[in-house]
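Q: My labmate handed me this sequence with no annotations at all. I'd like to see what the chain might look like in three dimensions before we decide whether it's worth expressing. Could you predict it?
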Amino acid sequence: MTSAAVALCLATALVHVLLVFLHVAPANLLSQQYSRQVNVWVFPLFEQNWRLFAPDPESVNRQISARTVHTAPDGTVRVSGWFDLTAVDNSAVKHNAFPSHTAQNMLRRAWSAYVETHGGDDQPRSERALMVQRYLTNIATDRIADHRGGTFESVQLRVITMPIAAPAAASGPDASAAVPKPAETWYLPWWKVDSHGN
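A: Here is what I predict for the chain of 198 residues:
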């Protein structure tokens, strides 16, 4: 029994190393042939990010909120107020000497992946785009269920993007260039949620 468990762990570790290697390796025949299987295994949990020494700092602040809809047995439709998902992350990080990676990055990275895979029209065009959409929906659903409770059938996200103003020069002709741009609000479509989410 123990030897079977050890063999299973070794086989899983070898498959994991092989799939991550194919993901990070330069494009080749093998990684192209098995790109679908590699992407299913790697995204979103084992994604590699090589910007450790050349990070891409944020130039905007985003507030991601969600609301839900529930249809009562009598047919009454109830739409909840907006629930600030970003505030949940911020409160988990603030005054915490060792905040978790998920508290710092899960929602932000899920949103970045959504924008990359959906563009500006909220239409998924690949299996990865559908997976990212489900991932973002599950994050919102889990956090709403944890903090608000209740039952609901659909969730909608709203993203308010507030540009970070450049520091104003003490003097000079470019001082007016530091005026911040107005905030942009993006409403996503209503998405059905699975029954296990609430």
